[in-house]
């Protein structure tokens, strides 16, 4: 039997306080027209359909950490697997005509039941070329590697583009990059709802063909990028924050 959790990240959920404000901000940043799909605003989300992995702005999760969605072809098999896999929480499966989903820890597992009729991915912004990596912030590197290798049924490899940090290659879209804070060097954030201190930023890595121009661009859109261009583990990058404090890392374009 194939592994029940697919090696594919359809989306990453970004918690926002004001959906309208955040949608307008990201649309301006990414050079996209706002084209809400039926029911998106009613459900407190807005989807930016990028190349491979989507950004879902989610006002329902404000006050919680960002969340990674993994795909499944058999939601019941995935749920049974997660119940046996080490976890803090596993929710029941929610089903409607479009999707079947459940949560394990801070991740969502999703099976599509019918076509969601999302708009096709538009060409990436010339300076923000889509997500290449999603961060997993690790306190204990070996424990985290073991959990995710079993979770997606794939072995880690050294990521030669990012200081040989361990990563798990997905079939398409963004890959998982496991960082013990050597690259991010980010502070922890306290989540009162969870009563936990966690590192959550940056959420992902965005590729760019021109790092200096990309920095000028995000600053012109009101992003906070006060440290400018940095270099660490042989990687040149900058971090920027959206109006809600969510951070993304922008790196010179790397091959996957």
TrEMBL record:
InterPro entries: Glyas_Bleomycin-R_OHBP_Dase, Glyas_Fos-R_dOase_dom, VOC_core. Residues 130-253 form the VOC domain. It comes from the Bacteria. This is VOC family protein. It comes from Cohnella silvisoli.
